Amino acid sequence: MTDSNQDLSPTVSGLGLGVGLRTAHFAHILEHQPAVDWFEIISENFMDCQGRPRYVLDQIAERYPIVMHGVSMSIGSSDPLNLEYLQKLKRLADETGARWVSDHVCWTGIAAKNTHDLLPIPYNEESLRHVCDRIRIVQEVLERPLVLENPSTYVTFRDSTMSEWEFIRRMTIESGCQLLLDVNNVYVSSVNHDFSPTEYLDSIPADRVVQFHLAGHTDLGTHCIDTHDGRVVDRVWELFRYAYLRGIRASTLLEWDANIPEFDVLHAEVLKAKAYLRSAQAEPSDVGDVSPHSASVRPTIPVETSVDRASATRRNAIPQPALFSRAEVE
Description:
It contains 11 helices and 12 strands. By secondary structure, the protein is an alpha/beta fold. Helix 4 (125-142) packs across helix 5 and helix 8 packs across helix 10 (273-282).
């Protein structure tokens, strides 16, 4: 069920342009079989459930490529790896024919308690060895490369001795894992920690990236929060275009986990990627400045209006994406 990349095959890479599978869209997808290229599921929403949610997933997996994205592996924790969790993950991947299995560079719990949040780790030699050792074990259990996503972060550690992008680069080289490059997370963290998002992307090994994440965030002026509750902003789209210009080719996925719109609105948002990829092909030397403090982002592609921004500013609730990992019931 793929046709959104037929008119742009030279630029849309991998599986094409996909969206996150959410309960609110189950009925629409089954009835209309929309022309979306692929779906990403939250692994924990289906690992232990059967009934209607699993029936729907099986129906969708018969028609569309599926990718699994988890939020509870806790690759950075000092707790032992949960082998029962990993076996369930492998079984679901085998049963759905998942193209790959991903999670985050973070820890989510300690002493067998799950915080249901994606918590940051310090970036130093000790944590790098720890994470790489655990990645190798996970890959042995899953019998496939693990794909890890760069997190959005809000604090730094005195014990960190390297940048996040250096940690990510070395982690992929030393462990053999692959990358899910969340462009929105790069932007959010660049604002919160005052680093250059383009320097980050310049350091990422392009051949290790198999997937992009795009999402909306909440800009509170002094800092940004990765809320997944709105449209992708101009600067994140420009950063996505910059990644393409830097030679990164990967399947692209839009996340929208709160204030979820109708499916057609969601799908239309990810299809905007086509225009940015076209502009990257047409003007390969026109990268532009996408740093958080730059005022020079060109309005080459229509995105959200001032009304959308005003509406976003009025939002009070700050949802956390990891909280959506709980099993859903339609």
